[in-house]
Amino acid sequence: MKIYAFEEAGGPARESVVATPEPTGHEVLVRLTHSGVCHTDVHLRDNDTGALPFPIVAGHEMAGEVVATGDAVTGAGVGDVRLVYPWLGCGTCAFCDEGRDDRCSEPRYLGMHRSGGYAEAVLVPHERYLLAIDGVDRGWAATLGCSGLTAYAAVAKAVRGEPGTDDEEIVVIGTGGLGLMAIAVLTALGHRRITAVDINDERLEMARGLGAAQVINSSSGPGDARTAIIEATGGGASGVIDLVNSGETARLGFDVLRRDGKLVPVGLFGGDVTLPTGAIPSKRLTVQGSYIGTLAEFTEVVDLARSGRLPRIPVIERPLTAASLTEALDALAEGRVPGRIVLTA
């Protein structure tokens, strides 16, 4: 089968041919029809963490058709269309046994530690990591594997009470693909008091179209943005979801919280921030990071999509080739993608 791998830091994707895996036990081989492109893959390609060896077959937003199964598989059959949960653990610890692979200390993520979505097929170690997506467009469904799940988990942390309650002012900083998905999730859950913050007017208009009640262009600087957000939210936000998580945006998010507010940083590789520690107890503030999500949360966000309540973010489809993958990652790195790119077989 063909794979599209990064062979050195910062280099282009390269096509090669490897043996097609033969599943055994609970393993399932999925022929990939749609693979979403995530900004995390830019960091992997550029070796920003230095934690993973090359070559890397990245890609962790995957949808496709089952083409082979191991002899112990009972929950999937050849021809089934499935969405892949990529955030796997070791498979043997207590967390993994409880369905909390995301807490495993020895992650085995597809597209990072194991071969992922930039290939003709992917070997999934157990059928429990495959979800049916009947009635959902495959290209859009593929984005739920990271964008949808990460946004859903972050929203769950940022919203204090029942979604849709009138006293919840939620601010979303950053309206790239992940930020737009967070706004879509908030809207699907009945939330209406959503303020979107970005430096790009085109993306802010997309945010408005997905349900943001107010939009703020923060390009004039954090001081003006802080004043505008506090005014827009009637005194401050109950929750801030920071999809950028630079030092500047983290401080902005912290400064606009009202009493008992919560800052949920999501963006990776952002920088450093200094916070006034006295404000944390005096305003009873919480800072809680959010990274990916559980298999149960994945099921919930897929159910939300299947219900028709989740607004669709813009999806740009391109063919899966080495050249298109390289171009997609370059476009992401340069901030030229309004929504999500999905590569198709």
Written account of the structure:
The chain is an alpha/beta fold. Strands 3, 4, 5, 6, 7, 14 and 15 form a 7-stranded mixed beta sheet that branches. A 6-stranded parallel beta sheet has the order 10-9-8-11-12-13, with helices on both faces. The model has no long low-confidence stretch (mean pLDDT 95). The chain is globular, with a radius of gyration of 20 Å. It starts with a strand and ends with a strand. Helix 5 packs parallel to helix 6 (201-210). The protein has 2 domains: 2-146 and 293-344, Alpha-Beta Complex (Quinone Oxidoreductase, Chain A, domain 1), CATH 3.90.180; 150-287, NAD(P)-binding Rossmann-like Domain (Rossmann fold, 3-Layer(aba) Sandwich), CATH 3.40.50. It has helices at residues 39-45, 94-97, 138-142, 147-158, 177-188, 201-210, 222-232, 247-255, 279-282, 295-306, 322-333, and strands at 2-6, 13-17, 28-37, 61-69, 81-84, 121-124, 130-132, 170-173, 194-198, 214-217, 237-242, 257-265, 286-287, 315-319, 340-344. Pathway: Metabolic intermediate biosynthesis; 2-deoxystreptamine biosynthesis; 2-deoxystreptamine from D-glucose 6-phosphate: step 3/4. Its cofactor is Zn(2+).
